Structure formats: structure tokens, C-alpha cells
Amino acid sequence: MAAPAYESDKVATPAPEKFAADKDNASIAKGSAVDSELSIIPGSEGVTEHEMNTLRHVRDKMPWQAFSIAVVEFAERWTYYGTTNIFNNYIRAPLPPGSTSGAVLRENRSVGIAGALGKGQQISFAIRTFNSFFVYITPFVGAILADTKWGRYKTICIFTVVIFMGHIILVGSAAPSSIAKPDVALGLLVLAIFVMAIGAGSIKSNVSPMIAEQYTGKFRKETLPSGETVIISPSITIQSIYLYFYMAINLGSTAAISASFLARDQGYWVAYLVPTCVFAMVPIVLYACRNNYVKTPPRGSIILETFRVVGMCLAAQWALNPVTFVRNIKGEAFWDVAKPSSYSGGTMPAKITWDEEFVGEVARTMAACKVFLFFPIFWLCYSQIDGNLGTVAAGMRLNGTPNDLIQNLNPISIIIMIPIFERGVYPLLRKRGINFSPIKRIAFGFLVAGFAMAYAAVLQKYLYDTSPCHDKRPSECVDAKKNPLSSPINVWVVSGPYILVGMAEIFASVTSLEYAYTKAPVRMKSVVMAFSQLQTALASALNFALVDVNVEDKFQWLFASFGIIAVIFAGLFYWTFRDLDRAEIRLNAIGTSDRAGFAGEAPAREGVVAEKA
């Protein structure tokens, strides 16, 4: 008799229908994979997901109109940094011996420092901080006017006149007759700062998006002369546009090189007059290129509609329990109540005057704005090279170098590094398959800024120890004849923080411009850009609270504290936004269709897209 078969010995024979089911499932799985490979990326010229994931991405040709707008920004930044970078000595230091204009007598230039009002470090810091605060809060003025009334081009033209008025007042404040009455000169300086900040801020929020919107390309395939098929990427092109735009900004920043020597050798009224003359090229360029720009016209109540969408969603998720409310806000269904598709028949509320895509655009805008909320810490680090490190340099061995000249190492280093990153580092990373996305770049920028502050803290400690006065105020150390007594440390040693902060700007600041542009709805790019720049104003407001510790004898601990905080925020930033990092391509695709967001209208754009303006 045969032994009974154990369960483990049995060979199951599948039923015919089981074979059929497996075959069908395999076909479905295979079909899904094929469908995924053949699905077209929204907003592209026939590029599939498979091609997007497997082909190398390169940038497109950049339009010449973008470079003309970069010239405008170059001139505007020349006037800004060619004046603000010498505010520290102008306000802080007294007139040099025998001077009426702030200039140093020829025989004293090897050790002498230009000055005028003699108001001290704290008043200098407070006024410079007010300038930074106001110039970065006024972008909302220009942004709202551009998005709702005038459009970006007209807004830039109008506020160009405002900047001119401010510069005329500034030159008057530095005339020898004004400097003879320091309180009068200081009052005129504050008025000039107020007027120039309104103009510069309103231009700033519009130049940044206008330069990028000159490029209108989409994802597409192209075969290179080598035979390689690549993806022409708008996002990489925008990244390159903003890198070179930032280079133009920093080329303008190097105006402070001439400003430092002009102030030392000729006096402050001459140093302020030269940037005013340079700014004269702005209206010329804007007028000459007026018929060639892509111009996005204002769209009326877009901001109000955005507030209504956000308000409607917040009201639907409201809860008395704060924990529940926060959980509801973070839920995936947060935006559903504002979507027309959530309602059937005639149940949609009358206040919903937007379409489905507009809700997606608002969600993307809110996500971008959350990213910018981390930036005040970054700009606090940057603010140290904007003035405090100039005071550090004043206590070192100058060898004829103006102490406020050293801060120009920051823009010079950026100018040198940007082509290296754009042509070398970033393409190499993409070729190696390393996704150095915007979120990663910003986090790394925070980290580098932290290292810069650590360098400054260590340097300040050595400066305290080697200054002849040993009172922790090296910049004020003088002999009996009021001639400066300096530390034996060469002033060029302070270049480290300037270069490191420059690198941090390439990673964080440039990327924030790119992020603000790519994540904002077409009609709200100026407002989102203004919100990103508002973070600099918030950093200045925080600096106001730190006036008591922004004194030379506390610089070491100030720099060290900023360094530690920046490193911590680098980790917190990436941890908070790692989900956005993974959704980068999907977020960029929102709003790239031909719909405007209201009732399916096509966006009316002036200029070369529709017609010559």
C-alpha cells in the first residue's frame, strides 16, 4: 500500500482560470509600466516620464532680453552698494584731521580712515539696520502695484524716478556745508534712505521675476552634435538665468571698491555722486528695449482671491483644540473645500469664482512661502559682513587699504564662483545622477553661512588678544595724537567670512530667487518674490533687538551664536521640507498649462508672446 502523501509533497495544479488571471495581472502590470513610460509630462513638448528620468538634462539658450534686465539690476545695485557700503564709516567715524568732506589728507592715507558724522558704532548699526529693514519691506509696494495695477515694466519705470530723487537728497546730505552740521546731515541721510528704499524695494520685487519670464521655453528633447539626446530643461535654464542675474547684482556691488577710495580721497559727496550718474543708464536701457520684453499685465483682484481661498480652507478646518487644528491644516484634504470639483450639481458656493488649477497654484504659493520663513537666520549671518566685519577690519593692519574695501571680497568671490558652479559643479552633479535640488542647496547654504560665522568668531578672539589696547575695541585703539594703533594681523585675513558667505549666497540666496519664481502663480510672482525678500527685513528687525550686543567688545560671542544657530537651522530646514524636495518636478508642473486660473481664461500676456508692446 502506498504511503500517504504529506502536504509538503503535494504539487498543486492550478486551475485554468488561475493561469488566465495571472496572465491578465501580468499584462496589467506590464501595461501600467508602459503607460508610465509613455505618459507625457504636463507643460512639455511631448517629453515622457521615461525620457525625463533617463535622459540628461541641460539648459536652454538664454534670451538677450534677460541680459538687458540684468544690466538694469547691475546699475541699481551699483547705486545701492556704492552708497550703503560706506555708510558705516560715514556715520560711525568722525571727520579725519583737517578734513571738511570726510576725505583723509594725503599724508595720512596709509593709516587714516574716512569718516564724517562721528556718531559711533551703535548709531551707525541702527541706521544701517533700518536701511536694510525698509528696503526689503517696500518690495510689497511695488509687487502689489505691479500685480494688480501697473504691470512689472511700468512699475520699474515709475520707481526709477523715485530712486533718482533719493540719490539727489543723499548727495546733498554729504556736502561739506551739511557735514559741518552733523545732525542736519544725519536727518538728510535718513530721509534719503527712506526715499531710496521705496524706489529700490519696489524695483527689486519686479526685476527678479521679469528677468525669468523673458524665457518661455518648455521641456523638450534635442539631439546634440555629438549624437546624444538630451532634455532641454526650463528649470535648469531658470536656475542659470538667476545665477547670472546674481552675478550682475554682485558686479554692481563691486562699485563699493571705487566708493571706498572716492570717500577716502575725495570726500563723501563725490562718492555718492558717482553712483547717481551710473544710475542714468537704467531709463536708457528700459526705453531702448521696451518693445522686446515679455510683459505680464496686471490681473486685478488676484491677491484678494488668494486670501479668499486660504480663508475658506482655514475656516473649514477650524478647531478649538490647537493640536487638532494644526493636524487639520497639515492634512491632505486641506484644500479640497475650495476646489470646484468637490461640489456636484448646483451646490458650489457663489463665492468660488476660481477654477481647480488656481487652488493648486495657491497651495504651491503657500508651500513656497513656508520655505522662505527660515531665511531670517541666513540674513542675520549675512548682515555681519555688511558692517560689523568692516569694524573688525578697522582694528587690523591696513597697509593703505580702506577698511570698508574688504567687504567687496564678497561680491568678487561670487562673480568668480558663479561660472564655476553653473558650468562645472552643477552639470557634473547632474551627470553623476546627483539631484542637488533647491531644498538641498538652500540647506547647504545655511551650513556654509554657519561656518563663515565660526571663522569670524575665532578671528575676533585673536584680534582681541593682539590689539595694542586690549580693551576689546580694536577699531577705536589710537595713540595720543589720535592716530590708529592696529593689531599686527593683516586685514586680508578677514577675507574668509566674506568668501564663505558668498558661497552660501550662491546656494541659498540665488536658489531662493529661483524657488520664488518657479513656485509662484504667473500673476503673483512679484508678490511671492516680495515675500521672499521680506525675510531680509525680518532679519533686520531681529537685528534691532540685538543693538545692545552689536558692539565691538561682544562681537566674538555674537558671531559664534549666529554660527551655531545657522548650522542647526540647516538641519531643521531640510528635515522640514524634505517632502517638498521629493515633489520638486510635480510642483513645477502646476500652473504650466495654458489656463490662467479663472474660468479657464488663457493668460493675456503683452510683449513678444502675444504682440510687440
Automatic annotation (TrEMBL):
It is a multi-pass membrane protein. It is found in: Membrane. The chain crosses the membrane at residues 125-146, 153-172, 184-203, 241-263, 269-289, 367-385, 405-421, 442-464, 491-515, 527-546, 558-577. Pfam families: PTR2. GO terms for molecular function: dipeptide transmembrane transporter activity. The keyword DNA damage does not apply. Keywords: Membrane, Transmembrane, Transmembrane helix, Transport. One of its GO terms (cellular component) is plasma membrane. Belongs to the major facilitator superfamily. Proton-dependent oligopeptide transporter (POT/PTR) (TC 2.A.17) family. This is Peptide/h+ symporter protein. It comes from Mycena belliarum. The lineage of its organism: Eukaryota, Fungi, Dikarya, Basidiomycota, Agaricomycotina.
